[in-house]
Amino acid sequence: xxxxxxxxxxxxxxxxxxxxxxxxxxxxxxxxxxxxxxxxxxxxxxxxxxxxxxxxxxxxxxxxxxxxxxxxxxxxxxxxxxxxxxxxxxxxxxxxxxxxxxxxxxxxxxxxxxxxxxxxxxxxxxxxxxxxxxxxxxxxxxxxxx
Length: 146
What we know:
This protein is mainly alpha-helical. It is built from 7 helices and 2 strands; from the N terminus they run H-H-H-H-H-H-E-E-H.
């Protein structure tokens, strides 16, 4: 396992695919009293930032979704997009020249990926806390990647 795989997919806390598994549409859209966002909204935000760095795109100033999640398939697609991006970030470990390249003066792609990993860890902590609050923690042993 390389460092970026550790940061984006499997290290320090349960595998990200497991953290996002076994959830229903009702569970991911529920916003418990006092919570600022739902599980879906937290992941949507996390994915937006991840994608903006991986694709060098502007997240359009939208920090959280403006439309409600209507179908469970949309949730699974978002989880798949996150995992695809996390795998792409981890694969960059094999491209040291690209990681060392500056994306802006004094900031390398490796710096940006470390920032994404820290940002993601924060939001995954919120996702776990939300799962705990709604009684959807821990994921069942047979839960796996959607």
